[in-house]
Design brief:
CATH architecture: Up-down Bundle
Distance between the termini: 53 Å
Radius of gyration: 19 Å
CATH superfamily: Rhodopsin 7-helix transmembrane proteins
CATH class: Mainly Alpha
Strand order of the largest sheet: 1-3-2
Helix content: over 70%
Number of domains: 1
Number of strands: 3
Order of helices and strands: EHHEEHHHHHH
Largest sheet: 3 strands, antiparallel
């Protein structure tokens, strides 16, 4: 049982609310923006909508779990009726691979190239999340470090594919697209970089209510960046490519 201050409890409550409405709003926006891009880029927007819809659903579960685990400002973190952190990992297991598919889809590469990239990125993303969860719930620092290192291996492989393999395809993209994709990759990596920080909390003597607060606020903000801002940037790239290919710019 954690005893939060009223400020801490309200901050967690509000950041969950912020994450939820951000996901729902982005889902609606990307869905209604389908006709603003050429048909071949609409799959990317559909995947973007799926990502934020899945995340929105899990934020409802996270939000409800936090409310049900709370007794005043006391939050149960173990046993029956406790706050369920696993909802985040279920969400990431689904949405992180889709984020990578979304990035490949918006570039509309040749089928063989797309299949090759997706065939490498998706298994690596699943492995990264699956190996991260045991470290997240571990109570011993040695176990946290072990699974932190193991989950870093597929993460580094994803970086290699994004920067080396995907980078080869950017030379043939319309003006401005390569630079935007470059910023998108940095955005993805920066937002993902928030998640491993929680592994360091015990090593930095950040425990109890402080660790719980920092983790929930950090994860929620990173989720909004990695899913909503990422999705809106995908829409921007789709618009840029559509206009470059002759679609009328309605701005």
């Amino acid at each position: 049982m954690l005893t939060l201050t009223s400020t801490q409890w309200n901050m967690v409550y509000n950041v969950f609310s912020f994450g939820l409405i951000s996901m729902l709003a982005c889902t609606v926006y990307t869905l209604v923006s389908q006709n603003r891009v050429l048909p071949k880029y609409r799959n990317a927007l559909v995947i973007s909508s799926m990502v934020t819809f899945i995340a929105g659903y899990h934020y409802i579960r996270i939000f409800n779990s936090f409310a049900e685990a709370s007794d005043g400002f006391n939050v149960s973190t173990s046993g029956a009726g406790s706050f369920n952190e696993a909802y985040r990992y279920v969400d990431w297991l689904l949405t992180v691979p889709l984020l990578l598919v979304e990035l490949v889809a918006v570039l509309a590469l040749a089928k063989a190239a797309s299949s090759s990239l997706i065939g490498r990125l998706v298994p690596a993303a699943i492995a990264m999340i699956a190996l991260g969860y045991p470290g997240e719930i571990a109570t011993e620092n040695s176990t946290k470090i072990l699974f932190g290192v193991l989950s870093t291996i597929p993460f580094l492989y994803i970086l290699y594919v994004l920067y080396v393999e995907l980078g080869k395809s950017l030379e043939r993209q319309p003006e401005g697209v390569a630079a935007t994709v470059g910023r998108l990759r940095l955005l993805l990596i920066a937002s993902w970089g928030v998640y491993p920080i929680s592994y360091l909390f015990p090593l930095l003597n950040i425990t109890g209510t402080d660790a719980f607060l920092y983790r929930q606020v950090g994860y929620s903000i990173a989720d909004v960046v990695a899913k909503c801002v990422f999705g809106l940037t995908i829409l921007k790239i789709a618009r840029m490519k559509s206009v470059a290919e002759g679609m009328k710019d309605d701005h």
